[in-house]
From TrEMBL, chain A:
InterPro entries tied to this protein: LolA/LolB/LppX, Sporulation_related
Transmembrane segments: 32-53
Compositionally biased spans, kind Basic and acidic residues: 181-192
PANTHER family: SPORULATION PROTEIN YDCC
Keywords, ordered alphabetically: Membrane, Transmembrane, Transmembrane helix
Keyword Membrane in annotation: yes
Record's protein name: DUF2092 domain-containing protein
TrEMBL record, chain B:
Keyword Plastid: no
Protein name: ABC transporter permease
GO CC terms: plasma membrane
Pfam families, A to Z: ABC2_membrane_2
Residue span of region Disordered: 1-20
GO MF annotation list: ABC-type transporter activity
Swiss-Prot/TrEMBL keywords: Membrane, Transmembrane, Transmembrane helix
This protein's record includes keyword Iron: no
Membrane-crossing residue ranges in chain numbering: 57-77, 105-128, 163-187, 207-228
Domain of life: Bacteria
Length: 426, 315
């Protein structure tokens, strides 16, 4: 008996010698088909899975745009937790420091003093990040940035605000002025923001609220079908600026049909391509998060920094509160005037010296507009020369925000086209 | 039928002993048509294969090197922080390094994070690549096949012994790290990545879960190595190919331009074991990892089966 043959199979069955080769060939083919089939099934499962996830828009009763906006405004979700996928694509090759995202950076780099919380949040301005959020009432919030083998957490529990970076084992502690700013209008958000301000700035709800605040004559709003987000039925709301010079193509917000909570926020540039900002819940739970979620004690041996300059910060935040680029303009910031209005607004200010640094910081003050100002030496590399009735200057552009810096030190920043900037500079 | 054509060398005699050890109850001589193998003897095949792996000097040296890594890391950290300094200037080095001085348990996580990218899978690649090709190279494979165990079962036994090695290698690193950490650093309540503090007992449980996740992360390369091992009759070639595939996958995993294929590379989700240390545990990546490893095990395991049950074994 041939020891070279497999034991199972035709051992002992006494096939005629001529048939053996053919039978073995066939058997071989059948066996090799198994791994191929396994791989094929896996590929098909992945394909079908993503097709199912994207298709099958839910059937929901019709709703008008006004009703939907009212629903969002009325929505009073106090408790929720979930994961958010947050992607930004500003169209910059790579992000040097000094560039940050709307609210995340607003109180942030401008102050320069502390390294940790704001600098960390600025990282959100590029690439894709996973955030985990948990909210229980107005004074218990948590936001974590999930990193590779590390995590950055911002925890607000009452008037205590902790930031913990597990990667470097450092803690940043501050106290939230509870009450202050918590009730006055826009400050309400900011007050919630105030301390944990950065906390929810990146969540779809906050982004959506800011966009909806800006809804007015200059904006067209429409309900654009339905979608499934994080396994929940949602309406799609499309907000489009009417102004021709705006670089914002459309803002799409998916609103949870039951609770009115925005679940997904997408901001697309007029130039098309991938969304500039895309924040969406991948998992959401409207139950009460466990109380321990908001507990924090600095671990042994961690470096703890106390936040001393609290008042200053709070004020700074209040000023720098502008929402989406140019929406509410950061009009409070000193030395800053806003040309145009709503979507087409352009921030204008003058930088005396140390162009790079200051421009970067100042642009930060203009809120999301700060995205456009690369720090320091990168200025020359990114800019392109322009000249007009204002003289000559450098123009810097991203997919969303453009900035013009004249040789006299005038800076014009806005989510508008380059031509609009040049026209404004006249 | 039992006698080899070439003059019986040392290895072959050893193989005969091994074969007899495996089927000792059959008293050496194996009837050609023996069927109906009792479950007990099935297990004995698995046991003897596992024994074969762990009796090898090579395996013991690999495990010894793995055990030395945490000791090395621990001592280095202790020496560096002996004068009150911080580790690596904060934030550098492998994950969790900054916490090691405060809690020895973190040495377990650091060591696993340090060995998982290369050391652990390399050891697994060596064992998996050697499993069948090594037997073929030393001329002992046919002895194993003469016994009525069947190729499928032999393959399963080889896979099992490799998987046991995955677990053993991980546990060696983890236990060595735990012992070193306990000796050199204080132990106590554990602060998770999310900033939540849990008791030392729960920390230990999480460390065990982390070790389990790491061991499961190695299933993919074990299956891959086994498949490579069925392709060649040279143990060295199989080991080198497996380790080469590992390095290639690790390199491909680095380039953002290749993002489209990266989720399907077996090392892609390896660091997800850290997600066990979040509160609440972040399952997405972990489950992705387990699914991917299961897929590799299914595809390459069945490919190894297809190859091994149909190939001509001449050595």
């Amino acid at each position: 008996m041939a020891r070279n043959e497999a034991h199972q199979g035709n051992t002992g069955s006494g096939d005629p010698a001529s048939g053996i080769a053919g039978a073995r060939g066939r058997r071989k083919a059948v066996r090799y088909a198994v791994p191929v089939a396994v791989a094929g099934i896996a590929a098909a499962t992945i394909g079908i899975g993503s097709a199912l996830a994207s298709g099958g828009d839910p059937d929901l009763p019709k709703i008008s745009a006004e009703e939907l906006i009212a629903k969002v405004a009325k929505s009073d979700v106090q408790q929720m937790s979930g994961s958010v996928k947050f992607s930004t694509d500003l169209g910059l090759p790579s992000l040097p420091s000094g560039i940050s995202l709307g609210e995340g950076g607003k109180g942030g780099k401008g102050q320069g003093a502390e390294v940790s919380p704001q600098a960390k949040l600025a990282e959100l301005a590029s690439g894709t990040h996973t955030l985990r959020v948990a909210v229980d009432g107005p004074d218990k919030q948590r936001l974590s940035i999930v990193e590779r083998a590390a995590e950055y957490s911002l925890i607000r529990n009452g008037d205590q605000v902790w930031a913990y970076d597990s990667g470097s084992n450092t803690v940043h502690h501050s106290t939230a002025p509870s009450g202050k700013g918590a009730k006055d209008g826009k400050g309400g958000r900011d007050g919630k923001g105030g301390a944990a301000g950065e906390t929810l700035g990146a969540s779809p709800q906050e982004l959506a609220k800011k966009a909806l605040d800006a809804v007015g004559d200059s904006t067209s709003v429409a309900v654009d079908g339905t979608a499934k987000v994080a396994g929940r039925d949602a309406y799609q709301l499309t907000v489009k600026p009417k102004a021709a010079e705006s670089t914002v193509g459309a803002v799409r917000i998916a609103v949870d049909a039951k609770t009115g909570t925005p679940l997904k926020f997408t901001l697309a540039a007029k130039s098309g391509g991938k969304p500039v900002v895309d924040a969406a819940f991948t998992k959401v739970d409207f139950g009460k998060p466990s109380a321990s979620t908001f507990d924090f004690t600095p671990p042994k041996g961690a470096k703890v920094t106390e936040d001393k300059d609290l008042e200053g910060r709070a004020e700074h935040r209040a000023e720098g509160m502008p929402g989406l680029p140019g929406l509410s303009g950061g009009s409070g910031a000193p030395g800053l005037d806003v040309l145009g209005k709503d979507w087409a607004s352009i921030a204008h200010f003058t930088v005396p010296k140390d162009l790079g640094e200051d421009a970067g910081k100042a642009a930060e003050k203009a809120g999301g507009a700060g995205k456009s100002a690369p720090a320091g030496g990168l200025f020359e590399k990114f800019g392109s020369k322009v000249s007009g009735s204002f003289g000559s200057g450098q123009i810097f552009s991203t997919r969303l925000v453009n900035a013009l810096i004249t040789d006299n030190g005038d800076v014009y920043v806005g989510a508008v086209t380059k031509d609009a900037l040049i026209a404004a500079a006249k | 039928m039992w006698r080899a054509e070439r003059s019986p060398g040392r290895t072959e005699r050893r193989a005969e002993e091994r074969a007899e050890g495996r089927y000792g109850r059959l008293d050496g001589a194996v009837p050609a048509g023996a069927r109906a193998v009792s479950p007990f003897r099935q297990l004995s095949l698995f046991r003897s294969e596992i024994g074969t792996v762990f009796r090898r000097w090579r395996t013991l040296v690999l495990l010894g090197v793995l055990a030395a890594v945490p000791v090395l890391v621990g001592v280095a950290v202790k020496v560096e922080t002996g004068d009150g300094g911080t580790v690596g200037g904060g934030g550098g080095g492998p994950a969790f390094l900054s916490q090691v001085t405060n809690n020895g348990l973190f040495l377990v996580f650091t060591s696993l994070a340090a060995t998982l990218p290369f050391f652990l899978p390399m050891a697994v690649g060596v064992v998996a690549g050697d499993s069948l090709a090594g037997e073929a190279a030393s001329g002992t494979l046919r002895y194993l096949l003469v016994a009525p165990a069947g190729r499928t079962r032999l393959l399963l036994a080889k896979l099992t012994s490799t998987l046991v090695f995955c677990l053993a290698a991980t546990m060696v690193v983890a236990l060595s790290a735990l012992a070193t950490g306990a000796l050199l650093f204080p132990l106590g309540d554990v602060t998770l990545l999310s900033g939540t503090t849990v008791s030392f007992g729960e920390g230990l449980l999480r460390a065990l879960a982390v070790a389990g996740a790491v061991a499961l992360s190695l299933v993919g390369i074990a299956a891959l190595g086994l498949f490579v091992s069925t392709l060649t009759n040279s143990g060295i070639a199989a080991m080198a190919t497996t380790v080469g595939l590992l390095i290639t996958a690790q390199i491909v995993d680095q380039f953002p331009q290749l993002a489209a294929v990266q989720p399907y590379l077996f090392p892609h989700h390896w660091l997800s074991f850290a997600d066990v240390l979040r509160q609440p545990v972040y399952w997405d990546q972990l489950l992705d990892n387990f699914r991917l490893q299961a897929l590799y095990a299914a595809v390459f395991g069945s490919a190894a089966w297809a190859r091994f049950t149909t190939k001509d074994v001449t050595a």
